[in-house]
Amino acid sequence: MNLNQVTIPSLNVDKAINFYQKLGLELVVDALPNYARFVCPDGNSTFSIHKVEKLPKGEGVYVYFECEDLDNKVKELKQKGIHFDEMPSDKSWLWREARLKDVDGNQLILFFGGKNRINPPWRIKK
C-alpha cells in the first residue's frame, strides 16, 4: 500500500489554491469552487482541498511536508508573505520542524526528518 493523497477542508478553495501554490505545490486539478488537487514537488504524492460549509471543530488534521533544506525553505516562504507560528527548531523526536496554518486554520508542519523519519532509534524491531 502507498499513501497517495490527503484531502483537507476549506471554506474558500480558490483562496486556498493561492496559498498552496505559494508553498510550492503544483496545481493539477482545478474544479472550482469545490475542489482542487496538487502534486507535491518531490515524490509522487498528491494533496487536495475540498469545499465545506463549516470547518471541523477541534485540532483537526496535522499535515506534514518534508523539506530537505527546511531553514532556507522557511526563509523563502517568509519572503513570499507566508506567516509561521513556529520557526524551525529541533524536536526531541529528532526532526527539525516549522509550523504554520493555512488560510482555513489547518495545521501544517514543514519538517526535515532525514533517516529518523522512518528509522528513529526507538523504531520497533521486527
Summarize the model shown.
The protein is α/β, with parallel strands linked by helices and 126 residues long.
Question: From N to C, what is the helix and strand string?
Answer: EHEEEEHEEE
What CATH calls the topology is 2,3-Dihydroxybiphenyl 1,2-Dioxygenase, domain 1
Low-pLDDT ranges: none
Name the helicity range. Answer: 10-25%
> Can you count the beta strands?
8
The whole-angstrom Rg is 15 Å
Instruction: Report the β-strand fraction as a percent range.
Output: 35-45%
Q: Which superfamily, in CATH terms, is the homologous superfamily?
A: 2,3-Dihydroxybiphenyl 1,2-Dioxygenase, domain 1
Q: Report strand order across the widest sheet.
A: 1-4-3-2
What top-tier CATH class fits best?
Answer: Alpha Beta
Tally of helical runs: 2
Estimate nothing, just give the exact number of structural domains.
Answer: 1
Largest sheet: 4 strands, mixed
Q: Could you describe the 3D structure shown?
A:
The chain is α/β, with parallel strands linked by helices and 126 residues long. The protein has a single domain (5-52, 60-117), classed as 2,3-Dihydroxybiphenyl 1,2-Dioxygenase, domain 1, CATH 3.10.180. The protein is 17% helix and 36% strand. It is built from two helices and eight strands. The protein has helices spanning 13-23, 70-79; strands at residues 5-10, 26-31, 35-39, 46-51, 62-66, 86-90, 96-101, 107-112. The strands form two sheets. It has a four-stranded mixed sheet with strand order 1-4-3-2, covered by helices on one side. It has a four-stranded mixed sheet with strand order 5-8-7-6, covered by helices on one side. β6 (86-90) and β7 form a beta hairpin. The longest helix is centred in the N-terminal third of the chain and has 11 residues, at 13-23. The radius of gyration is 15 Å and the shape is globular. It starts with a strand and ends in a 14-residue tail after the last strand.
